[in-house]
C-alpha cells in the first residue's frame, strides 16, 4: 500500500467514525469526536458576564450548567462546549446546533457535523457532504463525497475520487480534477494530476511541476517533500533548501521540525542544522 493510499483510507475511516467519550476528570463530561475534530473544544467564556457553560450528565443524558444552575436540561446524547454562541449536540445519532438559550438553531438532522471553522461547518447527510453557515443555510449543496475544513478561505471537496476547492460562498474556484490535493497553507497547495505533482496558488495556477513522490503543506515557509523514501524540505520557489536525506520528516512548527535519520529522531531548524534530540 502506498503512502497516498494509506492516507485516503484514513480519511474515509475518520469521515465515517463517530466516537463518544465520557469522562468526569477535571469536571469534563461528554463530548464527541467527529471526523478530524478535537474531542473537547475550548470552553467559551462571556467577557461581559463571565458566564461559563459547563456540561453535566444526568441519567445518561447531557445538558449545561452556568454558575452551578441548570440552564439547558439534560436531554442530549452528546454535547460539545460552546464555540461563540453555538454548541454542537447529538440526539439519537443525529447532529445539530443549539444556542445558549437552549433553542435549536440548526436542526438536529445531520449524520455527521464538524465544528465551525471560518464560520462554516461540514455536514453529512445520506452519504453526501456540504457546508452550512451559522444560520443553518447550506452554502454548498450536500453533493460531495468528502470535504475538509476551510483553510485560508478555501476547502477541499471530493466527488467520484476527484478533488478540487470551493470558496466560502460555496463556489468551485479550482475544478475537481485532481487525484490528490493538500490543504492550502501560506497561499499554496500541492496537487497531483495524471501522476504529476504540482504546486498551485489560490487561483489554481501551476507555479511549478515537481518531481517528488509526496509533499506536505507549507509551514514556516518550507514544505516536506519525499522521493524514493527520503525526505527533505523545499521553499516556495521549489528549491531544495534542506536535502532529501531523512527517513521521514515532520512539518516545521515554530521554527523546528522533527526528523529521523540513521535510526535517530531529532529536531532541526529552518537551515537544516541540528538543534536537539
Rg, rounded, reads 21 Å
Structural class of the helices, strands and pairings? mainly beta
Element order: H for helix, E for strand: HEEEEEEEEEEEEEEEEEEEEEEEEEEEEE
Residue share in β-strands: over 45%
Q: Which range best describes the helical content: under 10%, 10-25%, 25-40%, 40-55%, 55-70% or over 70%?
A: under 10%
Report, as a whole number of angstroms, the end-to-end distance.
31 Å
Average pLDDT figure: 85
Let me know the number of strands: 29
In this structure, how is the largest beta sheet organized? Answer: 4 strands, antiparallel
Cross-sheet strand order for the largest sheet: 6-7-8-9
Which spans of ≥5 residues are poorly predicted at pLDDT below 50? 1-48
User: Helical stretch count?
Assistant: 1
Tell me the overall shape: globular
